[in-house]
Amino acid sequence: MKVFFLLFIFLSVTGCVASRSISSNINPDPAAGDAWRSNLKSCNVQSGLHRQEAAARPPVVIKSVSADYDQVWDDLTTALNNRGLVISSVSHVGEMLARTGKALGQTRPIFSRARVMEFCSAVISRKMMEDNPHYIAFCPYQIMVYTLPAEPGRVYLSYRRLYWGKVKNRQSLQRVENLLSALIRETIETQKEYQ
């Protein structure tokens, strides 16, 4: 029973829900099993197609600009606040890696500076979770802001795309991506105005 339940959960999350309901019978009817196997093959093809689509669009969007790190952070915060949004938390990833690296004897710097800005939009999140309550996995939204030791003066801004199996309607997920993209674009454009 556990195996069938776990398989159902996996298929549900990946967007491949079998047309036949899962029976509590561990040894299902062989004829029904053929339909089940056929449906699984169909799901594999659909999942494979989704992976191809996802491969065409990288899972992380990365932009960069020549600018001062603190100015970029402040302008991103302003762009967020101008939309009526506030930062819910900040993850100090760069500081954490530097601190724990010393304890681990791994002192090569990965970032010069790196923070993750977390925030949410009640309006967009509400609609997103009305479409699918499991989209809670995408909250809060995050924008990573970081610099690399080998590229002084270049600030990177990135976010993860919101992928969820093979969904028919991506509108609510796309709204989040549009917000993240717009915030980064506005921040980069502001930096170019300073130059």
List the helices and strands and how they pair.
Layout: H1 2-13, H2 30-56, E1 60-66, H3 69-81, E2 87-91, H4 93-104, E3 113-119, H5 122-131, E4 141-147, E5 154-160, H6 171-194
Antiparallel strand pairs: 1-5, 2-3, 3-4, 4-5
Helix pairs in contact: 3-6, 5-6
Provide structural commentary.
By secondary structure, the protein is α+β, with helices and mostly antiparallel strands. It contains six helices and five strands; from the N terminus they run ααβαβαβαββα. A five-stranded antiparallel β-sheet has the order 1-5-4-3-2. β4 and β5 form a beta hairpin. α3 crosses α6.
Q: What order do the helices and strands follow?
A: HHEHEHEHEEH
What quaternary form is this?
single chain
Percent strand: 15-25%
- Placed side by side, the strands forming the largest sheet appear as 1-5-4-3-2
Largest sheet: 5 strands, antiparallel
Strand elements, count: 5
- Radius of gyration, CA atoms, in whole angstroms: 22 Å
Note the gap between the termini: 64 Å
List low-pLDDT spans. Answer: 1-47
Question: How many separate helices?
Answer: 6
Mean pLDDT over all positions? 80
CATH architectural designation of the largest domain:
2-Layer Sandwich
SS content category: alpha+beta
- Helix-residue proportion: 40-55%
| CATH topology heading of the largest domain | TATA-Binding Protein
